[in-house]
Design brief:
13 helices, FAD/NAD(P)-binding domain, 31 strands, alpha/beta, 7-stranded mixed sheet, Glutaredoxin, 5-stranded parallel sheet, 4 domains, 558 residues, disordered N terminus, globular, Jelly Rolls
Length: 558
């Protein structure tokens, strides 16, 4: 959603549809009538929304408001209009304000009933969801709602939070303190901080962590989840989201956890062209955003960002449940667990690499990074599909893209259509048998060049690249499994099926099941997976049938 530009002005009839009397009659059984006096606030930015309002009488003014007190009118909604965007599917904080312009009568549909309505009334639900998605996109594109990031627009601190919010489909705005008097005064109050974030409720945080910002925005809750879930999914990449959508659509109670954002590494792909059903391609962010909304539609609970520190499998055999410990101290219990934690970016052994991460060294290529390297020479290290997609995308912005690969060519690691695209792009230069060896510059001012070496001749070459993109594979995110008995291969990926044997006497696990009964693995984290978006989504769908079998066997045994 955040990365796919949509001409919202040409789709206002879809963003703000007028419901007919028949539509409202269908909605009535899911909601209750509420009255509000002139001037009353129906919902406020930064506070949990009560659900979807359908205006029956009167007018409601919708406006954007940021933490600096700036208010921007959006729309006046009268009889037949509904008031909601994607946040109302899960009761998350509202992103806009709604005030009664006169005496107003509404039909209020709370989040759980809104999800039931969307599923029960399919054609009406389709119109509602489309409008909610378009409204979120419009808020993102307007740059006038959500948290205010105050600092140098191209600083590493600002870019870090921009990437976090953008990948989570959350609107924000950046204010350059040198161009805004109010922002400059606020920054001065907090002394030496490089970045200030002002949340919609007015609270101010100097250079917050991603988790602290998420708490301030209400993106993740802090309540205790004491119920026993049917399925707990760790990881919200394509495999994890597919698992969640298929499991929840079949009536299972599902919760998904991810430490940063939905979409995983695939969410950073500028364009995926070999995924079935999208002949012109689709960005990873758009594909992940749609899956994220789809999961919420079916009632999946999302904890993003939230990090798992440990897995407890001690009750898997005797009581048919596992639990995970979160870094914040909370514990979640489930009858089954799906490991979809993927892999973290691999870092090459290059001196001073960590000094320039976020200051010229990048592990993804989004629109933000593309703007930074407009009409510049850049370098990209890697030979897989992600590297190829990034190279093609960056070539549309940079003056020249140097692609460094250790091997003789791309043939062994990249899809043919991407190789053809790269060969046909004049400003992409393929450099085989080449490795990155030195980085130049100072951490305060950022990267200002690099040196690479021909591995056959030993010759070194300097390049003025101020931005270098690393796509050299990944290391499985399986540290949190330690001590639970989940069998891993020599590289740390989770063994499943015939390769996984557990229990006493030892028995072979079901396909996609690990050595611990009821614990499954899908996507990039699984040993032997194909490391493709389509494959990850297929495994996420397939594992749900195995989960049903496991739950049925456990119920029969009980």
């Amino acid at each position: 959603m955040a990365t796919e530009r949509i001409e919202v002005e040409t789709r206002r009839h879809q963003m703000f549809p007028v419901l007919s009397a028949a539509d409202i009659a269908r909605i009535r059984r899911f909601g209750t009538v509420r009255h509000y006096d002139r001037g009353a606030c129906l919902f406020r930015a930064g506070e949990p929304g009560p659900g979807m309002f359908v205006v029956l009488q009167g007018t409601v003014a919708i406006s954007q408001r940021d933490g600096l007190g700036h208010v921007v009118p959006i729309e006046h909604q009268g009889p037949g209009h509904f008031l909601a965007e994607i946040a109302q599917l899960s009761g998350r904080p509202a992103l806009v304000d709604g005030h009664a312009q006169d005496d107003v009568e509404t039909l209020l549909v709370p989040p759980d009933q809104l999800r039931a309505l969307i599923i029960a009334e399919a054609d009406l639900g389709e119109r509602l969801v489309r409008a909610m998605i378009l409204r979120r996109v419009a808020l993102i594109e307007s740059g006038a709602s959500g948290p205010v990031l105050i600092g140098p627009p191209q600083s590493a601190a600002v870019l870090r939070l921009q990437n976090f919010l953008g990948r989570n489909g959350y609107p924000y705005q950046v204010v350059d303190a040198t161009q805004d008097v109010d922002a400059a005064a606020l920054l001065e109050q907090y002394g030496e901080s490089e970045l200030l974030v002002v949340c919609p409720d007015g609270s101010v945080m100097p250079n917050p962590t991603e988790h602290a910002l998420a708490r301030c925005l209400g993106m993740v809750d802090s309540i205790e989840h004491e119920d026993l879930f049917d399925v707990l999914v760790v990881g919200a990449g394509p495999a994890g989201l597919a698992t969640a959508v298929y499991a929840a659509s079949e009536g299972l109670r599902v919760i998904v956890i991810d430490c940063r954002f939905f979409g995983g590494q695939a969410g950073a792909s500028a364009r995926i062209e070999n995924y079935l059903g999208f002949p012109t391609g689709i960005s990873g962010g758009a594909l992940a955003g749609r899956a994220y909304v789809q999961a919420q539609k079916f009632g999946v609970e999302m904890l993003i960002p939230a990090q798992v520190s440990a897995l407890d499998c001690s009750l898997a055999e005797t009581q048919g449940q596992v639990s995970v410990q979160l870094v914040d101290g909370r514990k979640l219990r489930s009858k089954t667990l799906v490991i979809a934690s993927g892999a973290r970016y691999r870092r090459p052994e290059v001196p001073r690499l960590s000094e320039f991460e976020g200051r010229g060294i990048w592990y993804w290529a989004s629109a933000l990074e593309a703007k930074l390297c407009a009409q510049q020479e850049v370098a990209l290290v890697g030979g897989g599909n992600s590297a190829g997609q990034a190279a093609v995308f960056l070539s549309q912005h940079a003056a020249k893209v140097n692609v460094l690969v250790r091997g003789p060519s791309l043939a062994a690691t990249m899809s043919r259509y991407l190789i053809d695209r790269i060969e046909a792009t004049p400003n992409i230069a393929l450099r085989p048998h080449t490795e990155l060896v030195h980085l130049h510059g100072e951490p305060t001012s950022g990267l200002n060049g690099a040196t690479w070496r021909d591995r056959l001749s030993g010759n070194e070459e300097d390049c003025p690249a101020r931005n270098i993109f690393l796509f050299i594979g990944a290391v499985p995110e399986t540290d949190w499994l330690e001590g639970c008995g989940v069998a891993l291969d020599k590289h740390g990926f989770v063994l499943t099926g015939q390769a996984a044997r557990g229990g006493f006497p030892a028995k072979t696990a079901a396909p996609l099941e690990s050595s611990v009964p009821g614990v499954f693995a899908v996507g990039d984290v699984r040993s032997g997976s194909v490391k493709r978006v389509g494959g990850a989504i297929g495994e996420g769908a397939a594992v749900v049938a195995l989960i049903h079998q496991h739950l049925a066997s456990a119920a029969a045994a009980a």
